[in-house]
Amino acid sequence: MLLTEKEVADTKSFYEEERLRLHAKLKHVESMLRKLNGDNVDSQSGVMLTRTGSKAKKRGPKSVWGKFVLEQLDSTNRPMTYRELMNIAMESKGLDKSRFANVRASILNSAFRLRAISGKIATVGESGKKEKFIVLTNWLNDNGTLPPNQVKWLKQEMDFNPDAVDMSSIPKPKYEEDLNG
Questions:
Q1: How many degrees, rounded to 5, is the angle at CA 74 between CA 71 and CA 76?
Q2: Would residue 120 count as lying in a domain?
Q3: What local confidence, expressed as pLDDT, does residue 33 receive?
Q4: Is the pTM of this model over 0.70?
Q5: How many domains, in total, are found in the chain?
Q6: Is the residue at 38 inside a domain?
Q7: Domain extent for 108
Q8: 118 within some domain
Q9: Contact yes or no for 87/93 (Cβ under 8 A)
Q10: Which band of pLDDT confidence, cut at 50, 70 and 90, is reported for residue 174?
Q11: In this structure, what are the phi and psi dihedrals at residue 124, rounded to the nearest 5 degrees?
């Protein structure tokens, strides 16, 4: 089959247009099927999807206090109380005592988001005690228990015997950026 350069160019152009048209049509069909099935989660990664089928992104500014909580837990490599985090925040940020209520509210809100929405932290408690310790969820094993060195630290330093965390209660990340960091 002998074709001139113009015929080759026209044929390439035709098939490129055809590929784009079919790709757009396939994307539309997949989107409609997903909507009709009520799926708003990516089947491969498990993250939320927008109406158009693209991966959802977090809105607004990222929490500096959430980052602070994660960094403190990571740097100490042991469970921490809310009060301990608040005191470290007051010292490290150089804030006076009048700002404690604001710092407390910010840390509690950020910890709630990290625990209930992104699933990056969990709280461990002891039966019959009110005090709770914050831990990173990646420290917990499949049974919801802490590593032996952290359990030992809690028993020796804090006279605390942590209960296992219900791993089914920890939410899966909804956004792609939570999968990485």
A1: 105
A2: yes
A3: 76
A4: no
A5: 1
A6: no
A7: 64-180
A8: yes
A9: no
A10: low
A11: -110, 140
